[in-house]
Amino acid sequence: MSVADVCRFAPSTTGPAHPGTLLAALLCWLDARSRGARVVLRLEDLDPQRCTAEHAARMIDDLAWLGVEFDAVERQSDHGDRHAAALDRLAAQGALYPCSAGRGDLQVIGRRSPDGGWAYDNRARDRPLPPGGWRACGEPLRARLPDGPIAPRDEGGLDLAQDAAQAMGDPVVRRRDGAIAYQLAVVVDDAAIGVTRVVRGRDIAPSTATQVGLQRLLGVPEPVYRHHALLLEERGRKLAKLHGSVGTPQLRPRYPAEALCGFLAHACGLAANDAPVTPRALVDGFAWERVAVDDRLVRWDGQRLALAQSR
Prior knowledge:
Layout: E1 6-9, H1 19-35, E2 38-43, H2 53-66, E3 72-75, H3 80-92, E4 96-98, H4 103-109, E5 141-143, H5 164-167, E6 172-174, H6 182-192, E7 197-201, H7 208-218, E8 224-228, E9 231-235, E10 238-241, H8 248-251, H9 257-267, H10 279-282, E11 296-300, E12 305-308
Parallel strand pairs: 1-2, 2-3, 7-8, 9-11
Antiparallel strand pairs: 4-5, 5-6, 9-10, 11-12
């Protein structure tokens, strides 16, 4: 890879960082630094109901505390003009249409999507935009994806191939409240800062074909993708992302930064034990071949994190 490569870490600012957030940041950062690439922190703060300036400031502080520094920091909410320009381009292609179907309607349709949610059946594809265009529309807006298989390549060998228009359905690109939806914003903002590599948890993998479909509609480059394993916890009889039960407000009083980094390095297979270490010290020996392929089960007892046997 060349020094022209650009990576990004893009957490949502809906709450404090949790161990999974910090692991994702560490792996993205190590991938970039081991390649001599530029790495940008992009705060995904478009949800007006859940994102706050306090959460954003805390995210920046938590990542700096861990020892993960970035070449630039940007906020999605600063880039409404380029999101609107993307909607203009989709509208000009006839790929933008209004649809009022909500989550309850999708559940009635009853078809599961690859991400575990409910798939949309593209029922409103033939609806035109109102007079005045998308800016005059009070309904959610969807983008008509290209029909047929889309097969992004994942460096780790994950199968990302989908007929996204059928498997997921055309994505919402602007919500009813006027907020730009994740699927469009991530594509537009990656293109704007020249992202060439996307390293993220594999819970996002089912969205990749949809995002590539939007990239092709907009005529922007497709990054290289790598999706890594997750930290999971037991919730009742289910496994779920390690999120909500513990975050940096609980972790930082109990862990020096190097100790938490050591736990994360051990949890993902980069270290034989959880001895304290800094992110910088992990750069020279970093290789994806050393990173665990399987998700890791983690327990929090109110005081410490511990690896548990996977089920």
